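INFO worker-7 received task bundle
INFO bundle size: 2
INFO processing item 0
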Amino acid sequence: MNKQKELMKFKNKYQTFNIKSYLNLGLTKEEIYKLKEAFDLFDIEFKGFLTPEELKKSLNDLGILSKNNIINKLIEDKIKKIDFNKFIQIMGTKSNCKNIEDVKKLYYVFLGNFNIEEKLNVDNFKKVAKELELELASNEIEEMINSINPQEPGFISFDEFYNVMMKI
């Protein structure tokens, strides 16, 4: 589905949703609508909010996260409710990569050396996920890598990594 059709689908689904109040967060309309859709899926009781425990369970059920420091901090701080405004702040955080030097530093974190001629692979992502206490299955990492580089499954070049990081 092209982006225009997808945006129309979201606009029709969320006719009463005021997207304009979220555009200053640096997210695209499509990203905001997708976060709204995710929030609505997690809010199974239609309360308009989630508890940190509900959010953590939903993300764990999807295999996205196991021990997220932000969610754990909300639980520790005894935050009772996460409305969509808070949800978008948590889940819609953009990358801090502003230029090629920032991306090179991050590439180094994944690769473990400064050779940008080397390509990232599943093991590189597993290592970083483990350090961040994220539980990602190998097949999930492979799908992510292959979606970025379908021509060479299992590997991401620096240029491909750079393009992704500058989009997020």
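INFO item 0 finished
INFO processing item 1
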Amino acid sequence: MGLLRSLPKDATMLDLFEAHAEPMARLIDFEDKLMRGPSPFSDAEREIISAFTSGLNACTYCHRSHSFLAEELGVSEAVVPALLDNIDSAPIDARLRPILQYVRKLTLTPSRLVEADATAVYDAGWDSEALFQAIAITAYFNFCNRITAGAGLDVPDTTLRDAAKQLVEKGYKTSYGGLKP
């Protein structure tokens, strides 16, 4: 159900990126560094954060895509739905709970973030770099969720699963075909 008439019927993010290469190529570079560059978080943890953020936003395209990516990286398919239901009882490392509580608040009620939210992250053993990375991933996926929803992207799960496998094998930047601005 694409909403941009310039895109094919079952458009993917790649189609969107190719149609708007000038601004989107810069995003791909940023996404590649954010999701696969040096980080206090594993690749799987970053995919959990992105799938969780997208689930909170009810962005089915990104939620499904990054849930599948997390699964490809060894995360049980039950994790993200459990997080959306209740962070405290979800089957995740306890150290991730304050990160995901911060992500939830940043996504749903950002004006209500307080020092205690950051303190909980630090008290769990994370540093400022980890908090920044969580903030950046959350902000990026809030942005992507709006782009995806606004463009009306929606494709079958089989397409998204195939894309997840390709992203794990090739990385973000390579999977998008090396778009140039």
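INFO item 1 finished
INFO post-check item 1: The chain has a mean pLDDT of 92.
INFO post-check item 1: DSSP finds ten helices and no strands in the chain.
INFO worker-7 idle
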